[in-house]
Amino acid sequence: MWSWMADNAQVLNIWIGIGTLLVWLFYAHLLYSGFRRVRQSQILITQGGGTSIDSLCLITNMSQESVYLKDIILSLYVDDGVHRVSVTDFENRDLEAAASAENPITRQGPLSSDQYINVGTFRFLARQAARAAGLKDLDDPGEMLGINALKITVVAIYGPSGSIIAAQRKFNIIGDDNEHLEAEYVSTRQMRGMLARRRVRRWVGQPL
User: Fold this and answer.
1) What CA–CA distances, in Å, run from 58 to 108, 121, 202?
2) What's the CA gap between 132 and 134, in Å, rounded?
3) Segment 129-162, tens digit of pLDDT
4) How far is 173 from 141, CA to CA, in rounded Å?
């Protein structure tokens, strides 16, 4: 055996070198995957204070870098289709109610890592979107507008790279009185794919 190894030492060294290279490539891939996972943007859209339509809509930046909240788009799913409206800025009629907030005119602004912002109750956002979409404005948006679901899409600028990122979450309106929300999925969908980012850029008028 030793004689065979001595006779084929050059070939064995080549294979050992290839094996070592493959091991290093494997570990390099693990390190890169871990680094990329840590550096990926992560925005959460959650409910606070219960599950009713009067619960708070909370947006949390779980990314490692700060983000700048650029736009909040609310999609209203009604019987005759979908109405997509930006609710980033407060309406003129809501300025007095927003006077005690940190930013009284708009919901835009920076969010540091692990920081969250309360953008209002789901009922408040739905009524603002309904008015902007030209739907009938009454006290109960679920019952009087025939709203079946709400989808919140958050568009932000991520850290030093300045790239557009987005996340969204859909809530179905349930209950006999249309007063409760049920998230369609357990977690917030991160819109990282190329097609998803193109669609978001069209919504907010951001050039490619």
Assistant:
1) 14, 9, 25
2) 5
3) 888 888 765 555 445 557 889 999 999 988 777 7
4) 10
CA–CA separation, 135 vs 122, rounded Å? 16
Question: Would you state the structure tokens that stand for residue 43, as one six-digit string?
Answer: 């925005």
At 140, which amino acid appears? D
The model's pLDDT over 103-115, given as tens digits with 9 standing for 90+, comes to 458 888 899 998 9
pTM over the 0.85 mark: no
* Residue 56, pLDDT score: 94
Q: How large is the average pLDDT for residues 179-188?
A: 89
**Distances, alpha carbon 159 to alpha carbons 1, 62, 150, 163, 206, in Å:** 60, 12, 28, 8, 17
Cα angle 118, 119, 125; round to 5: 140
Longest dimension (CA), the chain: 92
When mean pLDDT is compared across 16-20, 85-89, 152-156, the lowest value belongs to 16-20
Residue pair 150/173 in contact (Cβ under 8 Å)? The answer is: yes
